[in-house]
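RESIDUES AND SHAPES:
===
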Amino acid sequence: MTTTPSGAGDRLVQVGAIVFFIGALATLVTVAPLFLGTEPFPPIAYGVCMFMGVGFLIAGVGVVRSVWLSSPKRAAGRT
């Protein structure tokens, strides 16, 4: 049974998830005026929606880092 190093990319995945959900919430808030018939938000609000992509990228880096540090070749070099 092999164990992966704890926390190799876990923190990046957690931060990425938080940033992603902030972007998702901003997207819901930004799209709501289109359905409610009210005045749209300023362009900066649409920029905050890009946090979804940034959060996804951060989480992806965390996953790649976890896989990289727990690969069998690298684990053999640590022992």
Summary: The chain has a mean pLDDT of 85.
